[in-house]
## 1
Amino acid sequence: MQIAYTMAQGRGDTDQILHQLSQRLLAAGHSPSGVVQVNSERSDSCRCDMDVQVLPKGPVIRISQSLGENARGCRLDPAALEEAVALTERALQTGAEILIINKFGKHEAEGRGFRAVIGEALALEVPVLVGLNQLNREAFFEYVGDLGIALAPDVDTLEAWAGAQLCQPLSHTMSAA
């Protein structure tokens, strides 16, 4: 049972690193399941749109909702998140080699979101890699105990870990991908 996590400091950095990793895995002929987040800047707002790509070849789902410029609440669209969760569950059942989840976030900390999918992957002995932030770090460790392996927020490091889990090193010739 393998679960690893990574935490980058900059806003959206973890998302970019996990997206790059997923692209490398796909280019190498692997079939990762899960979701990676791609943020799109908006010209009419200081906040970005948040989209997730369902892996390996699923749809892109907008998981943010526009609440207006002065809104202070959470912009996550729970229905869109649950759609991504359902699609990920289906993909996991079709033989995933590795599960990548963009973030162990508030919903996962509260027992919702991708939490059950992560548990199912671990029960199926599918390696799991999640993005993590300081806000939900304590809840993550309450969930996984001492099983979580810290990985540097670097796509080459994540690729090496994924290659080890997949029992074959991935080619670093794709580093420019």
## 2
Amino acid sequence: MFELFRSAALIASTLAMGLTAGLFAAFAYAVMPGLGRGGDRTFVEAMRQINVAILNGWFALAFGGALVLTLLAAALHLRGDGRGVLPWIVAALLLYGLVLAVTFAVSVPLNDRLAAAGTGDLAAAREQFEAAWVRWNVVRAAASTAAFGCLAWALVVHGASAAPGVGA
């Protein structure tokens, strides 16, 4: 039963991390380039609305779940035969720590500044937001994708260690 719980935590953490990586990647290769082609009013209004709309339960489940479930997976792999998987889970946690640091130190403050900019000089509001937000979102996309890759590899290692006759 413990092995089932450990496997489920690792699968769930990988799924949550994959959803989070996919979100940041989609912003990097589709959403921001698309918005970048629009005018200042369209860009600023769309980003303001996205920043409000994204604060929902589904986002919280993926974004928060990636951290909580990966921590749970790490805790469940601390002992015994789970230790071979642990370095990959820890690497994912470190990479996701970078995602969280960028989110709370850069992205959220930029979002807040854009929201507070008012309706006056939208070109200036966009200028102070767009390039920095896009650049740091690419960092989040790369780090969360690498974290997802680490967890996917952890699943491979976990499966190999659980397979009968492997390594015998």
## 3
Amino acid sequence: MALRLDMTVSLDGFVAGPDDSPHDPLGVGGFRLFDWLDRRLDPGPAGEVYAEAMATRAVLSGRRTYEHAGRWGGDHHDGVPIVVLTHAVPDEPPPGSVVYATDVRDAAARARAAAGDGDVVVMGAGAGQALLAAGELDEIELHVVPVLLGQGRRLFGDLPGHVELELVRRLGSPPTEDLHRRATHLRYRVRTRPDPAVDSGAASATS
């Protein structure tokens, strides 16, 4: 099983446009990043990677992503457990299968236990950075869209140190695909971790 960060990103490294909020979760121009999902139910690379994400047996999300997505109504897919990494646990009870965690290693352990021998999909730039810093992230799946947003929220903006990755798969849109629906799907294995002296036990980022 793997704890896998799954993110769509522009070629210049942004996962949302500027001024993202719960009312505009992908910010100015950010919805352009997800045109490739128009083909998510079709045969081909887009359908393959989407089906894999929907086959994961648990979700680990940052609080910002979770809130901006309307908390997924308490169900991201198929009722699988959802672990939300947050600085502070809300007073109201969580919806559906959601549980909160304020420690990144505890969040990872809960998600792994919930998934059993299945994979965990990680959602959110901040959650991905916190898991990388804690040495808890196994893989990174990037859906790279051939567009330059120029500004917005970066996927990797505050890592504590050097991380080596190994490319284990590359899938590309067929050459017949419409330009605005094209993406390159890259899966990396995390080979080295940041400096273990960096304390990442607490949730350092929750987006």
## 4
Amino acid sequence: MKLGYTIIYVPEVEESLAFFEAAFDFSRRFLHESGDYGELETGETTLAFASYEFGSMNFPDGIIGASLSSKPLGFEVALVTTDVAGAHTKALSKGATEIKAPESKPWGQTVSYVRCPDGTLVEICSPISS
């Protein structure tokens, strides 16, 4: 088995795709004509977004949307880069909110956290040295 894709449920798929394109330089792979589902080119594993309405079709009891919570939900998307500080600054300039500024960790990795306009928590980190 392998991880095929991650879907994040958001209020507006088009807006989330546009933010991730602008803030993190991903390319759009697909946006369904309904606007309820879209994907980004992110490497081996696809990062996808679906509307709350689409989620309601799959989950009759509804979902808890990250944008509806004052605190980040209990998961994050980790994006790896050699320029954490630059990526962090760029994400903030495109509308993200700072959760934690870039920080060097004892294991040699640099890590920061931002919250996207759709509520998604993103870790921006350097590769782990082996």
